[in-house]
């Protein structure tokens, strides 16, 4: 490198950032949004912030496997390292072509994220990155390499070092520094090292083989065996503490054929397809699941319409209430937790806030029910995709060993939206209609985001990850939840699900459309490495809204037209062969109980269900007319008799609040109630021939009389029958829970442009050369150490007025009304009335400053750019 090239090379990360263009800076700030929260004043502050421990750890944890391996290799390479030296560490003596092809991308990524800076001949890790990844006795390197010879011999006596030189056949030196350099050069020389190792006994080489891939530390006794003594004498094992020895890095690299990692992973593992289905079958299956999802959410809310389970003191559902909900929905408890959390996340249920706090439907639920089915599904699916609340953790325990309950606190996992979106994007990268092998999806996610952060990797000295980590569990939950919700069908991503993540519609070749179904799930389709999935990152809110609307548009034609009829059976059942119109489903849901669900829904009419319809304000004549209008078969006689019989008895007894009373025009009916032993618990006594008083409250009295076999009706204080409607209880307006982001949100283009402009302007103000001021050699106007310039009021005014005439830019110090000091580069336009109006290069706009707040002024140097 020439002297001119050396002077042009950046000497710090700040200088490296200073020569970047706006596109490169935008890429850095987009990948590491914490760097502009808040916006730094200049590039020096940006570089300082990029080197802080918290920011570096966050950036390292978001690297893919190969980029992280590259950073780990740089941490054990000389500082600075050349690109050729890094390639040798990554590709080894065999020069793996896949590694050589992938390494430029990894280095470019590390540079883009300001983890590495410098030219290819002088690559430098940011100091904090090296501290995190470099080997030490407390934190072994993920590469398994130990300290270098120079580091391992730092505390060794000069005499002992000279003894090692003699044992390996090197001439003695006059100082320890040259001795250590000679020993390190020997260990790094492939030919001489091969000869040195060939002299060792087999047992000694076996010891080296056990330490070569890490951990590099071993234990020895005070009187080691001969094969260990041979290693110690030659410096192939060096003592680090009493009874502890380490394999020097140079020796390990020779034994590894120059490779820093046992298994470099330059290429992401492919996502394999387990089976393939015709796209039409996938879409139809997903549409059926979507209809079932809507029905399940409506059934859940119907159960809670009049007030759902009580809210625990710590928040959330009790285990018993979750079990009851699971029984009511006929699903396992984890699936019930998913539906409950989905409805909560969509803003359809919330706490009512009463003294006896319970969960109930919100007013938003009524608005949601009025939407077309496809839009209702899109609202649920969009909520699921972006929610940080993770129902899969329900039933576990938090960091303080407290149980995690559905709808309770501490269910947010900030990684959930990214993992869900990424899993669906991987499915979108498969051939259309293909379902994935779950293990291959998990392997791909582990490569893209190594499952343990650098700190956890260092604790074990390995990058291996377990299958029970949070990201893998979220990925597995995503695959099952997407199937429940109808985002996938038969495990493959459906067209609405593809639109939901903003992925382009896949082309459908004619040959694929005519394919028959595969014989079984064992048919595997390999996916080539070059096939990268689309939509790698979650879209912005505006794009997400458009994607949700597109998903609803694609799903709508897949839904069957709602039916306006049912088939009445003689066994007091009605069969709905498909989804029903809203009005018909609402009335039938009150008049009958759902007996079974599936492709067709079976409703059963019972005395209790008919009484429920009468309580809701329907008359017997209205019920007969309703059934005759909506049945494709004649109304069976048993059903007609059931409605008439319940209606005849309904309302003969009236229950009101006295604390409670029963009145009836037929005193014989009251005599019958008093004579029934089952009514003893109600505490009834006669007040008049047609009135009974009770010790129970009206609700308990109603339930008690109905349990005996009567059909009482509640009445108001005015004597009118109270109509009980299923949707009578709603919470006050409630906002849906907001996702908990994983760090600062990604900045949009407008914010990035403004931040870069402000940083560059601040950097201009802090780095522009100034002319020396009068009166001294160093200059009165030039502030030492980058502090604010200081000049007198008369000199400041004169310099400002001169700059107005010449059009020159000035460097000023300014203190605002809050006392905050800053330095700025301005081009004065007008000076009058104690104010200067100038174009402020720092703010990139024209501003007016009071002269009494200007601490001083200095002219810019003639060669200032």
TrEMBL record:
Protein name as annotated: Helicase-associated domain-containing protein
Q: Upper taxonomic classification of the species?
A: Bacteria, Bacillati, Actinomycetota, Actinomycetes, Kitasatosporales
**A GO term, aspect molecular function:** helicase activity
Record keywords: ATP-binding, Helicase, Hydrolase, Nucleotide-binding
Residue ranges of the Helicase XPB/Ssl2 N-terminal domain?
Answer: 566-688
Residues forming the WYL domain are: 795-857
The Pro residues compositionally biased stretches are 734-747
Which PROSITE patterns does UniProt cross-reference here?
WYL (PS52050)
Q: Where is this region: Disordered?
A: 507-540, 728-749, 763-791
UniProt key word ATP-binding? yes
Q: List the source organism.
A: Streptomyces salinarius
Q: Where is the composition biased (Gly residues)?
A: 774-784
Leader peptide range in chain numbering: none
Q: Which Pfam families match?
A: Helicase_C_3 (PF13625), WYL (PF13280)
């Amino acid at each position: 490198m020439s002297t001119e090239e050396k002077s042009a090379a950046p000497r710090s990360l700040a200088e490296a950032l200073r020569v970047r263009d706006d596109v490169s800076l935008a890429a850095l700030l987009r990948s590491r949004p914490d760097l502009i929260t808040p916006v730094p004043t200049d590039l020096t502050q940006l570089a300082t912030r990029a080197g802080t421990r918290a920011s570096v750890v966050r950036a390292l944890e978001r690297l893919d496997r190969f980029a992280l391996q590259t950073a780990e290799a740089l941490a054990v390479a000389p500082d600075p390292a050349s690109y050729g030296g890094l390639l040798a560490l990554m590709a080894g003596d065999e020069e793996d072509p896949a590694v050589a092809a992938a390494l430029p991308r990894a280095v470019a990524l590390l540079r883009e994220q300001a983890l590495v800076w410098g030219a290819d001949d002088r690559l430098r890790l940011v100091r904090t990155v090296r501290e995190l990844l470099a080997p030490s006795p407390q934190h072994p390197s993920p590469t398994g390499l130990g300290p270098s010879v120079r580091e391992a011999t730092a505390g060794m006596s000069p005499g002992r070092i000279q003894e090692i030189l003699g044992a390996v056949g090197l001439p003695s030196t006059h100082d320890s520094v040259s001795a250590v350099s000679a020993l390190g050069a020997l260990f790094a020389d492939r030919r001489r090292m091969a000869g040195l190792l060939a002299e060792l006994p087999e047992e000694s080489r076996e010891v080296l083989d056990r330490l070569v891939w890490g951990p590099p530390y071993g234990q020895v006794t005070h009187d080691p065996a001969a094969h260990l003594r041979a290693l110690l004498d030659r410096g192939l094992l060096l003592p680090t503490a009493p009874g502890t020895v380490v394999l020097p890095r140079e020796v390990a690299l020779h034994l590894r054929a120059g490779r820093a990692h046992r298994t470099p992973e330059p290429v992401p593992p492919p996502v394999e397809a387990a089976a393939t289905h015709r796209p039409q079958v996938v879409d139809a299956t997903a549409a059926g699941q979507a209809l079932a999802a809507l029905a399940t959410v409506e059934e859940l809310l119907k159960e809670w319409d009049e007030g759902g389970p009580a809210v625990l003191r710590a928040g959330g559902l009790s285990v018993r209430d979750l079990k009851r909900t699971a029984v009511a929905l006929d699903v396992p408890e984890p699936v019930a937790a998913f539906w409950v959390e989905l409805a909560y996340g969509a803003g359809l249920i919330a706490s009512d806030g009463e003294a006896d706090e319970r969960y109930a439907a919100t007013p938003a639920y009524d608005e949601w029910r009025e939407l077309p089915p496809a839009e209702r599904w899109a609202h649920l699916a969009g909520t699921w995709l972006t929610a940080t609340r993770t129902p899969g953790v329900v039933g576990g325990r938090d960091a303080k060993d407290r149980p995690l309950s559905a709808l309770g606190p501490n269910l947010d996992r900030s990684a959930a939206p990214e993992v869900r979106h990424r899993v669906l994007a991987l499915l979108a990268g498969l051939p259309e209609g293909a379902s994935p092998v779950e293990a291959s999806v998990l392997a791909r996610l582990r490569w893209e985001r190594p499952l343990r952060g650098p700190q956890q990797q260092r604790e074990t000295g390995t990058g291996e990850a377990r299958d029970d980590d949070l990201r893998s569990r979220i990925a597995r939950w995503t695959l099952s939840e997407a199937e429940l919700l109808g985002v996938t069908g038969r495990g493959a991503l459906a067209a609405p699900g593809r639109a939901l993540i903003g992925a382009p519609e896949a082309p459908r070749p004619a040959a694929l459309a005519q394919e028959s179904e595969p014989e079984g799930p064992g048919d595997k389709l390999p996916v080539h490495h070059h096939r990268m999935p689309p939509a790698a990152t979650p879209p912005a809110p505006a794009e997400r809204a458009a994607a949700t609307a597109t998903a609803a548009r694609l799903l709508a034609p897949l839904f069957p037209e709602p039916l306006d009829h049912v088939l009445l059976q003689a066994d007091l059942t009605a069969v709905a062969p498909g989804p029903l119109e809203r009005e018909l489903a609402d009335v039938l849901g009150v008049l009958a109980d759902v007996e079974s669900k599936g492709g067709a829904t079976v409703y059963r009419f019972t005395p209790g269900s008919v009484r429920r319809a009468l309580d809701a304000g329907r008359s017997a004549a209205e019920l007969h007319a309703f059934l005759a209008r909506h049945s494709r078969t004649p109304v069976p006689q048993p059903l007609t008799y059931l409605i008439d019989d319940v209606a005849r008895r309904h309302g003969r007894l009236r229950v009101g609040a006295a604390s409670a009373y029963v009145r009836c025009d037929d005193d014989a009916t009251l005599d019958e109630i008093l004579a029934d032993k089952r009514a003893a618990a109600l505490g009834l006594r006669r007040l008049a021939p047609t009135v009974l008083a009770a010790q129970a409250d009206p609700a308990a009295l109603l339930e008690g009389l109905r349990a005996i076999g009567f059909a009482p009706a509640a009445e108001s204080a005015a004597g009118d029958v109270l109509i009980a409607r299923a949707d009578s209880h709603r919470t006050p307006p409630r906002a849906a829970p907001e996702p908990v982001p994983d760090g600062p949100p990604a900045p949009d283009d407008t914010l990035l442009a403004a931040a870069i402009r402000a940083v560059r302007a601040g950097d201009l103000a802090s780095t522009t050369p100034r002319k020396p001021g009068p009166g001294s050699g160093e200059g009165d106007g030039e502030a030492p150490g980058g502090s604010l310039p200081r000049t007198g009021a008369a000199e400041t005014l004169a310099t400002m007025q001169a700059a107005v005439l010449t059009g020159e830019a000035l460097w000023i110090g300014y203190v605002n009304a809050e006392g905050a000091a800053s330095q700025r580069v301005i081009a004065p336009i007008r000076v009058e009335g104690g104010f200067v109006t100038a174009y402020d290069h720092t703010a990139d706009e024209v501003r007016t400053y009071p002269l009494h707040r200007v601490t001083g002024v200095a002219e810019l140097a003639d060669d200032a750019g």
